[in-house]
Structure formats: C-alpha cells, structure tokens
Write a structure and sequence with these properties.
The complex is a heterodimer of chains A (480) and B (494). Chain A is 77% helix and 1% strand. Chain A is mainly α and 480 residues long. A two-stranded antiparallel sheet of chain A has the order 1-2. In chain A, a hairpin with a 4-residue loop joins strand 1 and strand 2. In chain B, a hairpin with a 4-residue loop joins strand 1 and strand 2. Classes of the chains: A mainly alpha (480), B mainly alpha (494). The interface between A and B is medium-sized, with 35 and 35 residues.
Chain lengths: 480, 494
C-alpha cells in the first residue's frame, strides 16, 4: 500500500496538469470572449504549479507502478525544460491568437494535454507508457495544426500530418511488438537486460530496431522522414508552429533516450550507424533545400531538419559526453527556433503574416532593437560565436571527433557554411535592404519582452554556457 | 601587488563603449562621436604600458590572465602577449583611434551603430591577438566577422551585398575546418585547449599534415594568399573607408599571426615539409598580384591588390625559417598596417569629395590640395618601399633572408620593388600630377584638420619605423628566436 501511495506522489505533476487541463476545459465554457485572459493565466499557473511540484520531487528518484513510470534526474530536468518552453509559447502566442480568432479555450487545453503527453514520454519506463504519451501528444498536435478550421492550408497540413503521423506510429508500434516478441516483456529495463544477454546480432532485434528508429526519426523530423516538416510548419498557424518546434522536440529526444539508451544500448553499434546516416542526410537536405526557400517558416523548417542532423551527431558517441551534448543541442535549438518563430509572430498583424523573408526587409530602420535580436538568433543558428549556437555545435562536434569520425565533423562544418548563407540572407534583408513599408512594427510589449529575453539568453548562454552544460550532464548522468 | 588586467581592459573597454554608443541612440550624433573617441583613446592609453613594461629578454607570455571559463571542456579565459603579438595589439588600439577620428563627419546614416560596430570589432581583434586558449581565439576570430559583415553591408558601396556575403562565407568556410582541427588536438592534448600545451605536444606526421592544411585554409583566406584572395578586392571596394582601413591594417594580419601562433610552433614537421608550397604561393602572389595591381582602374582595388602582394612578402618571410626573414615579415606587417591604412585614408579623402575612385576621373589634384598631395606622396613612396620609410625595412629584411635560403627567391621577391613602384607611383602620377582633369578637380577643397591629423600621425610612424626600427624589433628578438627553435625541433615521436 505504501508503495502505491508513493507511486501517486511521483506522478503528482502529471496528475496536476491533467486535472487543471480538465478544469480549464469546463471553466472556459462559462467565460465570455473578453474574459479569456483568465484561461491564459490559469494555464500559466498550471505550468508554474507543475514546476513547483517537479522541483519538490527533487530528492526523489524512483520508479512507480511497477516500472511503468520512471522519475530520475533526466525526467525532472526534461520536464522543467518543457514547462519553461511552453510557458514562453503561451506568452508568445497570446496576441497572435487573439487577432486571428483562435484565442479560445481549446488551444490552451490541447497544449496542456500535449504537455501531459510529453511528460509521460519523458518518464516512460515501459513501451506502453511511451506509446500512450506519444499518441496523446500526437493527437493534440494534429488537432492544434487544424485549429484554424476555415484556413485551407492549415487543414491540409493537419491532414498530411495526421496521415504521416499515423503511419509513423504504426511503424513504431510494429517495432515495439517485435521487441516484445524478442524480449518477452514491455518493460524497458527488462528489454535492456534481455537484449544484453542475447547480443546485438539477433536478426529480429535489428529488424525491430529499424522500425523503432523510423518512429523516432519521424518524431524528430530527421531526413529521410522529414517530408511532413516543411508543410506542417508552414501550414500551421505560426503560434502552433512555435509550439511544434519546442516541447515535442524535447519529448522526441526523451523517447530516443528511453528506447535506445535504456532499452537497446546493447545494439549501440547498429543505431549509431543509423544515426550517422540520418545525421548526414538531414544536414545535407536541411541546409541545401533551405537555400531555395523564400518563406521564412519553410526556411526555418528546413533549418530545423538540419539542426536535428547536428543533434543526432551527439547521439553517435553514445557516451555521457555525447548524450549531454545532444541534450544541450536540443535545448539550444528549441531556444533558437522559438525565438525565430516568435519574431514572425511579432511582425505579423491581423490579416497579415510576416512569414516571407522579404517581410523582414529594412527591419533595422523600422525597429533596430528587434532587428538586433533577430540577428543574434540567426547568427546563433548559423553557429557563429559568441552565441550559444556555436557551443552547441562545438559540443556535438567534440563528441564526433572523440568517437573517431573526424570526416563526419568536417562534413558537418562544411555544410554549416552552406547553412550560414541562408541565415545571412535574413540578416541581409533586415540590415541592407530598404523597408517596403513605412508601417510601424506592431507594438506588443509581452512578445517583445519575451523575444528580448529569449535572444539575450542565446547571447548570454554563449558567453557562459557552463551552467546549462552542467545541467545537461546532470540529467544524463544516471543513464549511461 | 594586484596588477591591472591590461589585456582584459583592452578587450572589454571598447566592447562596452560600443554598447554605450548603441544606447546613446541615433538621435545624438555628437554624443556618440565623443563616446567613441573617448573609448578608443582610453583603450590606446591602456595598451601603452604593454610596451613600456614589456620584458624583451624573454620569450615567455607576459601580462597573463587565466581564469577557468567553461570547466566542462576545460576552456579557460587565458590571455597573454609575447614579442610576436605585442605590436599587433598596439597597432589595433592605435588604428582604432584614427578610425573614429576619420569617420567623424563622413558617416551620416546610423552613426551609433557604425561606431558600435567598429568599437566591438576593436575589442574582438585585440582578443584575437592576446588569446592563449584555442577556443577563445576561435571565438574572437569568428565573432569579428559579424561587425565587419555589417560594416560592409550597411555602409558600403553599390555592390556591397555581394561583397559582404562573399567575405563572410569565404572567411567562415576557411575557419570551420580549423575548429575540427582544434578539437582533434584537444583530445591529443589530454582534453586541453591551451595553445601553449598544443605547442609542446607530440603529433604524428599524417595528423600534422592534415591539421596544417586545415590551418592553411583558415589563415590563407584571412591574409589572403593567392589563389584564395578574390574576396578581398571586392570587400575593399565596397567597404566604407574606415572599414577598408581596419581590414587592411589589422584583419589581414590575423591570418599571418595565425601561422606564427598555430601552424609553425604546433606543426613544425609539416611546416618544414610544406614550406616550399608556401614559398611558391608567396612568390606567385608577389609577382602575379603585383602585375594585376598595375592594370587596375579603381584606386581602392589597386591598393587592395597591393596589399595582397605585400602579404605575399610576409608569408615568404615567415617560411624562410631564418631570423631576418621572420622579423622582416613581422616588421612588414606592422609597417603595412600604417601604410595601407594611410593609403586607404587618402583614397577616402578623395572619394568624399569626388564620389569616385576611378583613376581616370582625377588628374592634377596637387593644384588644389597641395598638403594632401605631399602627404600622399610620402605614403606612395613608402608603399613602393623607398628607403627611409617603414616599407623598406621589412622588404629589405625579407629579401636578405630569402637570399640566405636561395638567391633565386631573393631575385623573384626583389621584383616587388619594381612592381610596387610601378603601380603606386603610376597611380600617384595619374591622380595627383598632370594638368587639372576637370572642373570638379579644380574645385577640390584641401584636406581638413582631422584628415591631416590622421595622415600626419601615420606619416610620423612610417618615418620613425623607417629611420629607427630598433624599438619595433627589440621586443621581438627573444620570441622569434624561441619560435625558430620550435620550428627546428621535430615533434614526431621516433
């Protein structure tokens, strides 16, 4: 009985967010449209509450419900990152949603349920738990992408996303069922033990691994399973795109760690090779195709693909260094991607989406401060010091070199020069071109303030990345 | 006694001043100018003790500051100067004052951002010359590109976007392989990025060769050497005057400095093995680029090519592995810092008045601007290597050094005196002498006080260095000896 009690204690944050999401769902029905800020505030309070609950569990490190649920350092750190990013997502999205008639309770409820999904994935100790979290997250995402019902492209994006997502889920499930066949258990730790004993050369096991990898790659949006990324990122309302580039990426990372590092570490040789191939493809496709884009959202989507490639480089090493550098890269990417999409929202008004690169023309003359912030973000994505993007690249390259793949590091850095070209183009239009419109930049102190914090964080973390790196190492320590 | 962290101050003071000018805003140009001037003058004053307190008897690093920075990767905030870098720090802080003075009134658009870009770049360049941690070096090395990218792109000429993107991508492409090489060495050195540790550790021959080429790409693009020089004429032509000055006087030196600090002491075997390549490329640069310079119709382009040719002289001197060659090369770099800065300023003075840099639009400028004409004559002579000016000292020493190695090298190198005299004096003649070309030239106003001040200061240094080079040389003897010793000793384990 006592152990069950403590089990409930350990999932307190999940329970809290779920309960609050349900409460908000009902509460929102009684609100008039001009009272929607209450929903917004309640959602933010939910995230704050969840953070407090998670922090309160700081000392705890345990499994609950017979290993279905794991609460370790990794889970806690990932959850805190997720709360933080979603908190920022809500703040960024408020005005954008209002102006487009999307400022409704569903948005907040769906995002909160998606957060629950990510939390379950992060803490999963069992294949079923992973799948449960994954589907909860995915269903919320499909609905979010199609939230703007009267928008054709958004609906199309939602449908594409749903079909491809269902396919990927099926692949993952197939891989999981094969794993169950091999190991005779759904428990990840148990699978880990069996796999170690039967060795990495088992054909069925490798077959299962391939399907699991496909599922992971799809969730990350890594090439060659990246086709949905540009369409969905472009088609979805920018506030949703912003969300898609944050918490789900962190959850995908957690899923990869749980499945591969905890469950299948004995096959590390095999999945490392697959990561190398996918990393190279992603970096190549992402960087080269991004050059041809004129739509900033699409460009950022391809840039996301290339960033995932870099992130995978960190997983190649498979040791503590590598995994923490991959986590560092993920967090950094989330920070940068969020800032990039937020800038688009900042410049957009009702009826006008500033999503073409040319919409940023002459921003330095219209609003030098925002131009400066965007410049920091772009240079960070390109990996130019002294921004945090440089350290993220340095950290993963360090792993790759340590693993003896110097050629891979050279491949990655040469293509990052290609990548620099399209990031520079954004800086170029902001600083060197004359503005097309004299219209003032929409003033939005909330978004402006968060963008400023976000971009300055990119710079400050670049000047002293030590603390964040230590957190990443701390999160990974128990796993390797 | 708690010593003043001179190097840190020299790096961060300009950067903070740059941020201050940004905060002052675009509405108050006069305030921005004074802040910028104060910042650069103060930085210059701060760097003076580097020379006065420098101990020339040792090759050890001086004014060292070392603090842990990113503990996880063992990256330190490690600064210091020796005889190789001392003059570059001083040159940077000195040229930056002139940059502010000469940009005083000829920048009308976004002045605060302009000054901020130059001030931040000053700090970063001083950082490059004093970093003793490879990652710290790399950060300064790369971060420098951002302000320069903006300077050319925002305040540059009509073709500036092409030039600035070319500049950025070329130099970025050059430096990223270096990053991988540094990471490799990091593991070889037992997880340390300390440059001095890199210089002491053994590396196998294959690795040395590969790393050497990675460094070569990074530094040869920066110098730039033939055949990766093509970004430089574009960048110079489009850059505003002060941008060209900084580019020629300081940024080009960073490439050569990289050879001195990285390639030669860290990879002595590969360096000796491949010196022929460097010498060949250098001689091609000296002769071929010198000839290319002669046919230029744009004054800035001409001086840009002349810079490349002079830098060829520098790399030639470095890879001769004798004292005359190496010291000559360093002297040549410092001297080129003064002369090229002055030449670009001269072109800038003319451009501000006539808004063209085409040589054919000028003629007979001496009639309306006699003071300016005589100052420019001095710099043209110095650029051509006239004895008594700083241009001669370096060239003479390098030719002397190359004669010791192979008389043919000396003969090929010495032709630079002919090419240099050819393109510089011919340009001077066409622009300054002869009949007054047109109405515009006749109406030219004499250089103003600020311009003359800047040119006179540079003239003083050009002459001082030409007539009495000892103060410049003395501080580098010990470090050059030490470096030559490092190059001579094999690091391949038997």
């Amino acid at each position: 009985m006592g152990s069950t009690m403590s089990s409930w204690m350990l999932i307190a944050p999940e329970l809290f967010v779920t309960a609050m999401a349900c409460a908000i769902l009902i509460f929102d029905l009684f609100l008039k449209d001009d009272q929607r800020d209450l929903t917004y505030l309640l959602s933010q309070v939910t995230l704050l509450g969840a953070s407090l609950l998670t922090v309160r569990l700081a000392g705890e490190s345990n499994v609950a419900f017979e290993g279905m649920f794991v609460l370790d350092n990794f889970a806690k750190v990932m959850k805190l990152f997720i709360y933080l990013t979603v908190f920022a997502v809500f703040a960024y999205s408020r005005r954008y949603l209002m102006e487009r008639g999307l400022y409704r309770g569903e948005y907040f409820v769906l995002v909160l349920f998606a957060v629950v999904g990510t939390m379950i994935m992060v803490s999963a100790g069992n294949l079923l738990t992973i799948y449960l979290g994954l589907e909860l997250l995915a269903l919320c995402q499909y609905a979010l992408v199609g939230l703007q019902r009267d928008n054709g492209t958004a609906t199309e994006a939602a449908l594409k996303y749903f079909i491809l997502g269902a396919l990927a889920s099926g692949m993952l499930l197939y891989g999981m069922s094969l794993l169950y066949g091999v190991a005779g258990t759904l428990d990840i730790a148990g699978i880990g033990n069996v796999v170690t004993s039967i060795g990495a050369n088992d054909k069925v096991l490798i077959f299962a691994l391939v399907f699991v990898m496909v599922g992971i790659a799809f969730k990350f949006g890594a090439a060659p399973f990246h086709m949905w990324v540009p369409d969905v990122y472009q088609g979805a309302p920018t506030a949703i795109t912003l969300f898609l580039s944050t918490a789900p990426k962190l959850a995908a990372f957690a899923m990869a760690i749980r499945l591969l590092v905890e469950g299948l570490s004995a096959t590390a040789g095999a999945w490392e090779d697959m990561f190398i191939v996918m990393a190279m493809l992603s970096i190549l496709v992402g960087n080269v195709v991004a050059i041809a884009q004129t739509n900033l959202k699409r460009m950022l989507a391809y840039s996301a693909i290339s960033h995932v490639g870099f992130l995978f480089l960190g997983l190649v090493g498979g040791n503590l260094n590598g995994l923490s550098s991959a986590l560092f890269y993920t967090v950094t990417y989330v920070l940068m991607g969020m800032g990039g999409f937020a800038m688009i929202m900042l410049l957009s008004r009702a009826g006008f989406e500033a999503e073409e690169i040319s919409d940023f023309k002459g921003l330095n003359q219209r609003h030098p401060w925002y131009a400066g912030m965007m410049m920091i973000l772009m240079f960070s994505m390109a990996g130019v010091p002294p921004t945090v993007g440089f350290y993220a690249k340095l950290a993963v390259l360090q792993t790759v070199v340590q693993a003896g793949h110097v050629w891979l590091a050279i491949f990655a850095v040469i293509l990052s020069v290609v990548g620099a070209f399209y990031y520079l183009r954004v800086v170029k239009v902001m600083y060197f071109d004359a503005p097309e419109t004299a219209e003032p930049v929409p003033s939005d102190s909330l978004v402006g303030g968060v963008v400023t914090l976000n971009s300055l964080a990119v710079l400050v973390l670049g000047l002293s990345p030590g603390a964040l790196m230590s957190i990443c190492v701390y999160a990974m320590q128990g796993l390797v | 006694m708690q010593e003043l962290p001179i190097l840190s101050l020299a790096i961060w003071l300009p950067i903070l001043t740059g941020i201050l000018t940004l905060l002052a805003g675009e509405g108050r140009p006069q305030l921005v100018r004074w802040i910028a001037l104060l910042g650069t003058v103060l930085t210059f004053v701060i760097t003076l003790p580097l020379y006065s307190q420098f101990d020339a008897s040792t090759a050890a690093m001086q004014f060292v500051e070392k603090k842990p920075w990113i503990a996880l990767f063992n990256i330190n905030y490690h600064l210091g100067v020796d005889g190789l870098s001392l003059w570059f720090v001083l040159l940077t802080s000195f040229i930056s004052v002139l940059v502010v003075v000469t940009s005083w009134s000829n920048v009308s658009r976004k002045l605060a951002q302009y000054m901020a870009a130059f001030l931040i770049m000053e700090g970063l360049m001083i950082g490059v010359f004093s970093a003793l941690d490879a990652i710290l070096f790399y950060i300064f090395f790369e971060a420098m590109l951002i302000p320069m990218f903006l300077i050319i792109g925002v305040w540059g000429g009509p073709n500036r976007v092409y030039a600035t993107i070319k500049f950025f991508l070329y130099t970025f492409l050059g430096s990223v392989p270096m990053l991988v090489a540094l990471l490799y060495m990091y593991f070889q050195a037992g997880q340390s990025f300390d440059i001095l540790t890199f210089q002491d550790m053994a590396i196998g021959m294959t690795a040395q060769t590969l790393i050497w080429f990675a460094f070569l790409l990074a530094f040869s693009i920066k110098i730039p050497m033939w055949p990766v020089h093509t970004w430089l004429p574009d960048a110079h032509v489009e850059a505003p005057t002060a941008g060209s000055v900084v580019l020629a006087a300081i940024m080009l030196k960073i490439g050569a400095y990289g050879f001195l600090r990285f390639s030669m002491p860290m990879l002595p075997d590969a360096t000796r093995e491949l010196a022929w390549l460097m010498i060949a490329l250098s001689l091609i640069a000296v002769v071929y680029i010198g000839l290319v310079a002669i046919v230029q119709e744009d004054m800035k382009k001409l001086i840009a090519y002349s810079s490349i040719s002079h830098m060829g002289f520098v790399t030639l001197g470095l890879y001769l592995f004798n004292k005359a060659g190496m010291e000559g090369a360093i002297i040549q770099m410092i001297s080129h810092g003064f002369i090229s800065a002055a030449m670009f300023l001269c072109v800038g003075v003319l451009y501000d008045r006539m808004h063209t840099r085409l040589i054919s639009r000028y003629g007979g400028v001496a009639n309306s601007m006699p003071v300016f004409a005589s100052l420019m004559l001095l710099f043209s002579m110095a650029n051509a290597g006239l004895p008594g000016t700083s241009g001669f000292v370096g060239e003479f020493m390098v030719i002397l050094g190359s004669y010791q190695v192979n008389p043919w090298f000396a003969i090929a190198a010495a032709t630079t005196l002919i090419w240099g005299a050819g393109y510089t004096l011919w340009m001077y003649k066409r622009v300054i002498f002869g009949p007054v070309a047109n109405e515009e030239v006749a109406q030219l106003k004499e250089a103003n006080g600020r311009e003359i001040f800047a040119l006179l200061t540079l003239a003083a240094f050009t002459l001082l260095m030409g007539l009495w080079p000892a103060p410049f040389q003395e501080v580098m003897h010990a470090s050059v000896d030490h470096l030559l010793g490092q190059v001579a000793v094999s690091k391949v384990l038997p």
